[in-house]
Amino acid sequence: MAKKQLIMEKALELFAKQGFEATSVQQITDHCGISKGAFYLSFKSKDELIVALIDHFMRQFTADIDYVVNHEQNDADLLYDFYYTTFQSFNKHSDFAKILMKEPTQSFNEELFTKLHNYNKSIEKVILSMIDRLYGEQANDLKYDLAFCIKGFMNTYSELFLLYKLPIDLDLLARSLVEKTDLLAKNMTLSFISDELIQMIDQPLNEERTLDQIVEIVEKNIEDMEDSIEKESLILLKHELLEPSQHPAIVKGLLENIRQHPHCKWAAYLLRRHFGIK
Amino acid sequence: MAKKQLIMEKALELFAKQGFEATSVQQITDHCGISKGAFYLSFKSKDELIVALIDHFMRQFTADIDYVVNHEQNDADLLYDFYYTTFQSFNKHSDFAKILMKEPTQSFNEELFTKLHNYNKSIEKVILSMIDRLYGEQANDLKYDLAFCIKGFMNTYSELFLLYKLPIDLDLLARSLVEKTDLLAKNMTLSFISDELIQMIDQPLNEERTLDQIVEIVEKNIEDMEDSIEKESLILLKHELLEPSQHPAIVKGLLENIRQHPHCKWAAYLLRRHFGIK
DNA sequence: CATACTAATGACTACACGGTCAATTGTCAA
DNA sequence: TTGACAATTGACCGTGTAGTCATTAGTATG
């Protein structure tokens, strides 16, 4: 298992520097100090590696901003926290963010394209729920436009420190984007993106998580973990999934236990949604 | 010469569908109904083909929007015409636009990266001149932010019809973006992107700084500063420039000391690059 | 120490790519 | 019809790739 981590870390560095296609398995294994055969003990193919990387980081990122949006009590700070967390995350995982920016979104296989599309949708969902909470009906017709603008800000401003390694004042960046977003939300009148348009985009790619899928993911997580409070919490949560019996407060506590564990963020996110707990 | 046109057209289709790396010369020539040898009569290499494509379309696009911005007499229509022309062009040359969106900006060679950067700069220049004409001093500090927002709108909204082939009401799109842009221009107060930041982006691509130049800049910085930890750090870093002797960890620490100092950002940036420290 | 088992290796295969060039075909003036 | 020249071909080359597997090294057990 540790081998898998090592490969993912080292491969990430190379992918960010040279791109996915341009990096050979040989280079990766050299960089890890292992043999080529060992690589194929951890991953069935090079494609499986890139999928694992994308899952790992996108889950973490989605879970992070979802948590922020659901746990910030003060409406006045919500947007700021969202932007701050987002860019902090981009900054921390800049190697991965670079890959996402640079790689030809669709020249991978179809499966990966849908996967990325779905993560994109999850993020959009978080953004939309934030918009709804802050501006409610006031911006109902305009919510998709607003979400698109927010995504546009995220994309364009992140280039600044991903392509060029510039020193960034995260606080100022977040504040300036809050202002922009707030201005648009409160004064826009013309909506371009309608419900219909969104439906046309989503149509072919609907996919809901079933209980079984969540259980499966949680179980996989449990296997990979060392004995700890977090592992115990996950096991208890798994039982709760199959046979709900505990008080919501207990469930919430268990979720809080695993929230910060890097490998549990995605599971925590799915569980939070499943149990309907903020 | 007609052969060259044919190859460019057919190759464009394949690149848009599969990406540049994933398309072989054999596939291109098959698609053209010519032999592989014939390809190399028109282009010295596959790289030369992609360069030709990028030049062809970027020149056209840059020239198009430049013309619109310079020839629209009526200020009231300027923004609208800009957006309308832009998206019309994206739509007309959607195959090429797709390539631009999808291709790993830097996994080509360095030459191509600079080339794209320069086209990007040309477009930014057009946008900035438009902002200047419409909002003049009113938005002077905010012009770069405004330009970034406009580029963000262009990127994000164009995805709608590049990735998903949706029918687009160009007129509504342009009008809605004009409203957004105008709102931001007239009400923003917080600027994130300063002249200094823009300089940092442009500098390293023009030419690599020599050691002497860096020393000179650092020395100027030291002179201008009052006695402080930051000044001491800078002095130590200057010695390190001339006679490398310290451990990387120490260098990194010194850089961290001056990172937040407003007048040191540029020097810190150059030093980070010089010492190869993230 | 011997045995059984797992983890790790790297030479190897099969293949696809960009690019070359001797050989072939097409063209047209004499 | 001939011959000189230009245009075009596609088999071929060197290189580098993803992925395999017989072999070896390492480790735990009786």
Give the CA-CA distance, first to last residue of chain A. Answer: 32 Å
Radius of gyration of chain A: 20 Å
Strand residue percentage of chain A? under 5%
- Domain count of chain A: 3
Most residues in contact: chain pair: A-B, 46 and 53 residues
Shape of chain A: globular
Mean pLDDT of chain A: 86
Parts with pLDDT < 50 across at least 5 consecutive residues of chain A: none
The succession of helices and strands of chain A, N to C, reads: HHHHHHHHHHHHHH
Q: Quick one: biggest sheet of chain A?
A: none
**What's the helix count of chain A?**
14
Short description:
The structure is a homodimer of 278-residue chains. Chain A contains 14 helices and no strands. Chain A has helices at residues 2-18, 25-32, 36-42, 46-71, 75-92, 94-102, 110-135, 143-162, 170-187, 195-202, 211-224, 229-242, 248-259, 265-275.
